Amino acid sequence: AFIGVNIGTDLSDMPSPTQVVALLKAQNIRHIRLYDADRAMLLALANTGIQVTISVPNDQLLGIGQSNATAANWVARHVAAHVPTTNITAIAVGSEVLTVLPNAGPVLVSALKFIHSALVAANLDDQIKVSTPHSSSIILDSFPPSQAFFNRSWDPVMVPLLKFLQSTGSYLMLNVYPYYDYMQSNGVIPLDYALFRPLPPNKEAVDANTLLHYTNVFDAIVDAAYFAMSDLNFTNIPLVVLESGWPSKGDSSESDATIDNANTYNSNLIRHVLNNTGTPKHPGIAVSTYIYELYNEDLRPGSVSEKNWGLFNANGVPVYTLHLTGAGTVLANDTTNQTFCVAKDGADKKMLQAALDWACGPGKVDCSALLQGQPCYEPDNVISHSMYAFNAYYQQMAKAPGTCDFKGVATITTTDPSHGSCIFPGSHGRNGTITNGTSLAPSSNTTTSGCSPKYVYGGDLVTSSVIFGVTLMTAVFL
Fold this sequence. Notes:
- Helices cover 29% and strands 13% of the residues.
- The protein has 478 residues and is an alpha/beta fold.
- Among the domains are: 3-34 and 132-312, TIM Barrel; 340-413, no CATH class.
């Protein structure tokens, strides 16, 4: 099994193909899916060995599905012209056609067959598989998985499609998004169940028909697809998840679209796939999965979350650093446990001020970097200064559970808050050296920190005599 990534194109500052390939190499990403068959991208991928799934866009599907000659021309231009130099291994014909473009449903199987015939003619059919990705929403009654079946109205498409996949040795492509299942469940699906977090046995979902225990949404959806194929008497077709992920940012109605949840989901997903756990129905048979997606897409229409599924920003800077110990060499920006404590968005400034005073006073954090003229003085505001102090305390306390709370105004993040010459404790810094998180406290005979626990911002003097006891909480980090 492998982990791959999807590469979208809705970026205002789209990296050049050579920059994309450089990032793929740096991250040891060996499997990618393109949403088209862009010539420049395929040329840049030449001689890299990276396995590439290319796509027939939905707007070309009708033409290809109605004309063998059009399909043959597409294969000649976008496939035969590039192999074997570029390692094309699969073609995704359309995307979620039955749910997004249902009027093209009647020609979907014809399109797959025409593409495959062209590959046969070019003697490429053994190397390149042909399939089409489906939304998991075509699976009805998906829990318990053993009762799942495909939407019956699409039987005239699904039955010949599965016959085609079986006869050509191909696989079912499925898009699996536990985020949407969680969002649409109205609280029925626990967040931990969607994020692959450990559940107590009494919280695991049990299929009453098979007595199989499900510890996460992803496995339940994959097994539902296997059972839905069995319902149509197809039991030997493998499955590849062509899209799965979690958004790192959302609007006010998407409070669980956060950097930490995205990190947790994708880190756990990668580990789950690469350790060959498999699913309860097929233990030990891992499902190869492509993460959606490599880059955030700021031009993508729709909600805030639609633009924020990427692992990286367009400039190649990680949106967050994945926790990947033991996951092999994929995604080389693995700096496991590199977490930071920062102020929560929208936190009350007086609460932040009081917490800052405590950290730089009784908390014994060395806040000298916040003094005027020092690297972390700018920007001179309570949010920025409290972030530094919170994180310094958190690192000083060896990231112990409960040490990033400060009466609810702080939160853990995997995004390095360092800026300019202000390197936060725990950061690798610009020279790649981790700032020691254990030597930040003043000596034991020091009664105050390097900066006064009284700060003036915007003309308001805010002081606090409140001693902030750190509330014990359960912090989940991997």
